[in-house]
Description:
This protein is an alpha/beta fold. About 40% of the residues lie in helices and about 15% in strands. The chain has helices at about 20, 40-55, 65-80, 100-115, 140-160, 185-205, 225-230, 230-240, 250-260; strands at about 35, 55-60, 90-95, 120-125, 170, 210-215, 270-275. A 7-stranded parallel sheet has the order 3-2-1-4-5-6-7, sandwiched between helices. It is globular. About 45% of the residues are buried. Bound molecules: nicotinamide-adenine-dinucleotide. Nicotinamide-adenine-dinucleotide binds next to helix 2.
Amino acid sequence: MTDTATTTDPQGNPGRTDPSQMLAVYPELAGTVAVVTGAARGMGAAFAEGLATRGVDVLAADINIDQMNDTAERINATLATNALADKPGRVVAARVDVTVRDDHEELAQRAVAEFGGLDFWINNAGIFPFALAGEISQEQIGAVLSVNVEGVLFGAQAAARHMKPGGAIVNMSSVSALRVRKGRGAYCTSKAAVAHLTESLAVEFGDKGLRVNAIAPGYIDTEMTRWVREDPAALAHALDSVPLHRLGSPEEVFGPLLFLLSDSARYVTGHSIAVDGGSRHV
Ligand SMILES: NC(=O)c1ccc[n+]([C@@H]2O[C@H](COP(=O)([O-])OP(=O)(O)OC[C@H]3O[C@@H](n4cnc5c(N)ncnc54)[C@H](O)[C@@H]3O)[C@@H](O)[C@H]2O)c1
């Protein structure tokens, strides 16, 4: 192992370089157009920034339009001074409620009108309700299935109506699709549905020349997992179940996403990539 192997990234994660510099560059992505949902913060915001850095125009959408506007403004300002962003794409903010089917169609039409096409669609928006399966209310299960499952389905349907052959859809599943935990029955069920839906969509959309894959993250350092970081017992318990003994960063999920969108993955469809530090095995 060389000296550089002990370098840490801004979150203190070990590696050889800062992830923003280590990620593979896929020149074929420059000039393409992507929709990213749930992009006001967390992984969606990191995806929007990472894609725009590589020359992708991004329609970044969220139900929280105020935060989405702020995030898009911040990303565009950062891109203007980012030496890695040779010819950055534009990030345009949009409002979407992923539970509303028509919102997706509007989003797809806006991407085409604003940027002249649609190549990629990242169904990233999601919610995480903590409730025992034996006690979860009808409202809670309805909400999580609506956002996490219907939101993905409607997004994929709209994307497929507007994409040309060569397009790719990526859905955010979770390690919770592969490994259940107490208090997460509804969430685990919703993400297992996303994994299965991804396979079904891949089988159908292959006829259109579209690929559909999923990413199954483990514990990633975002607002969604703030409750884990803020409770020392929960954090210790969580890290016990991660062979790499740390949370992942949004940038570490972006790398596999980039691969799935790139031509390097042109024969990969109907697959879920776990990005979980190995936690699906523990
Ligand atoms: N953070 C993790 O550890 C983790 C692990 C596995 C999977 N995931 C999944 O990854 C995705 C992103 O997670 P994150 O940690 O960045 O979450 P986050 O909570 O930080 O961000 C989610 C975003 O989705 C938006 N959103 C929620 N409901 C919406 C709706 N109805 N319409 C439009 N936007 C809506 C929120 O406003 C928010 O900006 C989610 O699907 C999540 O389930 C997260």
